[in-house]
Amino acid sequence: MVNQLPLLVFPQAKTIPPPVGRGFPSSKPHFPGHGRQAERLEAQLAELQSGFEQYKAEISGAVAGLEPETVLVIEIAGRVDDFKQAVESVGLEWLGEWDIDDIDPDDDFYEIKSKGEKSAKKVTGRLFLSLVNEDGLHNLMSLWQKWKEKKTLPTGMTKWRDVFNQIVLIRRWGIEETLGESGMLNRWRDIFDSVEPDQKIRFQIELFYRSNPEKRKKNETDVVGLLQLIGGRTLGAFIDIEEIAFHAVKAELPANNIRLLLQEIASAVTIDIQLFNFSGVMYFRPTGQALTTTEEGEGQNVEFRDDLPTLPPVAAILDGVPNLQHDALKDKLLFDDPENLAGEYLPGERKHGTSMASLVVHGELPQGTSQPLSHLVYHCPIMQPDHDSLGRNEHMPDDIFFEDRIYRAVRRMFEGEGSTPAQAPGVKIINLSIGDSERPFIHTPSPWARLLDWLSWKYRVLFCVSAGNFSDDIELAMSSIDFSALSDEEKTDYVLKHIEQQLSERRLLSPAESINALTIGALHADDSGEYYQGPRTDLLPHSALFSPASRFGHGFRRSIKPEIYFPGGRQLYKTPPQNSGRIYKIDPSIGAPGQQVAWDSNQPGELSKTVHTRGTSNATALATRSGIRIYDVLQTLQVTHGEQIPDGLIAVLIKALLVHGAKHDEQAKVTLSAAIKTPANSRKIKEVLGRYIGYGAVDIERALTCTEQRGTVLGCGEIKANEVHEYRFPLPPALASRKDWRRLVVTLAWFTPINPDHRNLREAKLELSSHSKWDEIPLKLTRQDADHHQVHRGTVQHEILESEKLISAYQDGEHILLHVTCKADATHSLDDIIPYGLAVTLEVKEGIDIPIYQEIRARIRPQVAVSTSSGNK
Question: In this structure, what are the phi and psi dihedrals at residue 686, rounded to the nearest 5 degrees?
Fold first, then answer.
């Protein structure tokens, strides 16, 4: 057995001067000449003006005090930085911006190749949103006239010159965004055949976030009035969270009015229902999402160990209500139910909360032999049964916001509520194994994701979030009899190619795009062993690949999401009728394969039932369990080995170590590359692979211990903007001048404040680098796995470097100098101090007689506190 050794800790980092700035100017796409651009914009601006005048006439007298305003959408090719001030100087109200990368090239706008030729690839650019009233529109047209006549623009407005040069499209925000982009239009079309005319249809209204509180209140008044005008009403109070720029309300309308809207859209006539023209509305969205569960059944009894936790909680679960009396969970949870949601459940309905708690507390349950945690787990329910649905599935009620329940639950955890003190202030990890099936990630993070980002920063806590399940049918282009005749390798290749064609349908589910959270994907793997096949098909018979029911990235700004993968159970599909059948439906069986979990029985007194389940929810719960194990290792380092790790840096160090154990499985990478690599994507194949497998599957044991041939050193700290923290990683003398295979793994994780007003959202950008290029240091390393640009787009940088080249000669006492740098991103002035965690591992193959661990340990100078400042923000 390999001797397990404790992790090592860097001395406190040295702060050094930042390097002299370097970089390359970004390339610009081709723009049309001034004359051609003036011709293009003339028609667009004329249409904008006439549309505004028509809207002004339509709302006259609709609701008292309703002002004629419209949201202006400006799409440009290329980039124009710091445009906000120029927008406001014209009298427009800035609402936001985001990057776009899907502008179709034409003769006017196109990317330019290195030799100056026209490229056929999509053009990148930006989209600006601003609110314009009559005066603002007049000022804009005046500026446009000056630009058209090539006159000098007034001081403070010269950015408009660049914008006019680069505008692809200028228009009003309209129905295609408020109803189309959110999926609301299609949803309403789908349900109306079965809806009675007087039935009430519920939905969510998300408003543009106005910086002025009085204007937000005015928008609320206008929305209430516009709803009342057509027989509608709001459901509860508006939600207004300034820190994430979220302003919304739940509402309902008679079905007949929505049917009238659909008819008007279908016939391309002017929309007469002013609620749907109101400039304050950003999106109409579905409401009241439900969790999908496995089929009904009782499962099998398992005997559980009696070990009881003796330590306070360091992890929390936000989910449905669990069965607290189940043998797997009794006295193992700190249950906090401020809204008495447990009273909403009937026996047998506490399924999801029970199974998630089971996986966090026990892991998988092969024959009930797992080791339960030594910590209590804090469990706060946020879901409840849907009394109006046939299956009473757990859901978020129509009149409740996900954001509100989660915000209150987390605040109660750390600060308390009213006279109730903080319920679990020591929590470092929060498990969120739920997502919004109606809100796949498109281009900007959802309010729910932004909320997790802000809470993570505020309380220095790590959220582990599920990527979301793809529960749709899979329709293959061959019959089931032909598919069954393929070898496992051929089946895998065929299904991977099919999945590649439906990536847009497999986007992450909100809030999985959260930038501070770790997003967890599901591997097609479990510990259930052999199973009865029956009329079921394994579409992806490869245990090192993702589950066929998992969703994929990219994340925000094409960052790596999901970052890591844990086993989520082997998901089988119902075999369609032979010869003609091509459609495979998810098999919801409670039998194997899958992950064995505790289950809430319908029968009184049955408190030891288990079933098999699958999905990204399961994988996320296992990630949370692994995070608790990391916490215990960090505590041991402090108590037993005298290391000093500030409490305020524990969560971010857990984040770093969870990712540190991740790596692409080589066979999975080869199989996936063979299926999806083409001449068109070969140059970016690492980024393409990252969309499917992130940083890879986690081997948590590698993150918890060292061996004689593998040494891991930890660091953590708090860094300011434009600072550089230097760590000195000692080079083992025994490696010098050898040609042995070696691997260096470096992982940097941080929590960032957010700026929801900025297209980048992330205020702090950290980066880990070596003082020289990786292939120029004595170990002569080459990057593996992740794309070296993509690793810098989120809040985790994880790089694996390997080599078998001859190592340079070096002297005992030489180091690899590792630099952690901090720069402002979505802000001009980063005033906050940023917490980060660092893990660095050097290894050679086990059995090679090189004492890597001992040589690193001997050369890490006498330990001091990792950081002298900590605490919650």
Answer: -65, -40
